[in-house]
Amino acid sequence: MSSATCSIPQASDQMSWMEKINGPYHREALWVYTAIVLAHWMEHLVQAIQIYVLHWPIPESRGVLGLWYPWMVKSEALHYGYALIMLIAFWLLRKGFTGSSYTWWMIAFWIQFWHHIEHALLQGQAIFQQNLFESPVPVSILQLVIPRVELHLFYNTVVFVPMVIAMFYHMFPLPGEEAHVGCSCAWQPRAARRTKATVAKA
Predict the structure, then answer these.
(1) Quick check: is 1 in a domain?
(2) Domain containing 65: what range?
(3) 9 part of a folded domain
(4) How much is the pTM?
(5) Residue 32: its pLDDT value, please?
(6) Which residues cross the membrane (predicted)?
(7) Residue 156 lies in a domain
(8) How far apart are CA 1 and CA 190, in angstroms?
C-alpha cells in the first residue's frame, strides 16, 4: 500500500457494485480476471507447442481442454463469447486504474477491442454460413496474411503484455500517482512501512 493509502478501503452498503470492484474488491477482481486470461493464453501457447514442437497435425492440435472437448476449439460462438467477456471486463475494471497504469490498461483494452472485432467477423460467417473472400472456412481480416493459430496466439500475447504492465504500475505507482490510488492493490513502499513503524512505536 502506498503512503497515501495505508489503510485498506472498506466496502460499505452505500457503494455500488462498480465502486466495490474498482475499490475495496479491485485486487480480488483482478486476480480472478488475470487467472482466466492467463489460462486462455496458455491454451493458445499449448496449441502452438503441439503444432511446432510435437509436430501434431493442426486438426489434432486443440490445446488442453480441446483434447477432451473438441467442440470447444471449433465453436466460433465460444471464442466470440470469451473475447466479448474479456472486453467487458477490461472496461468494468478500468476505473480502478489511474495515471500510467490506466494508460497501459486502456492500450490492452483497445487491442482486445480489435481482437473482439475479428472474432465477431468469424462468428458472423458461422451464423450466416457465408465466408468472406470465398474462403472455405470462416476467416478474419489479419488471418488473410497470418495463419489462425499464430494470429490468435499473437492477439492474446499483445493483450496480455500491456495488461501486466498496467497491473505492475497499479501495484507500484509512480511518484506523484500514489495519492490517486483508490483501492487495496498498491503495495506499501519501504519508506511508508518505516514511517508507520515509527508512528506505532511512538
Answers:
(1) no
(2) 18-201
(3) no
(4) 0.80
(5) 94
(6) 30-57, 77-93, 153-172
(7) yes
(8) 10
Report the C-alpha gap between 29 and 7 in whole angstroms.
19
Q: CB under 8 Å to 196, separation ≥6 — which residues?
A: 6, 188
Count of domains for the chain: 1
> Which grid coordinates belong to 181?
490510488
Altogether, the residues listed in the chain come to a count of: 202
Q: Is residue 176 part of a domain?
A: yes
Higher pLDDT, 32 or 1: 32
CB 109 within 8 A of CB 95: no
Q: Residue 67 in contact with residue 158, Cβ under 8 Å?
A: no
Quote the DSSP letter at residue 2: -
Report the candidate in 170, 156, 168 with the shortest Cα–Cα distance to residue 115. Answer: 156
Q: Which of 72, 84, 163, 157 is nearest to 119 (CA)?
A: 84
Name the amino acid, one letter, at 202: A
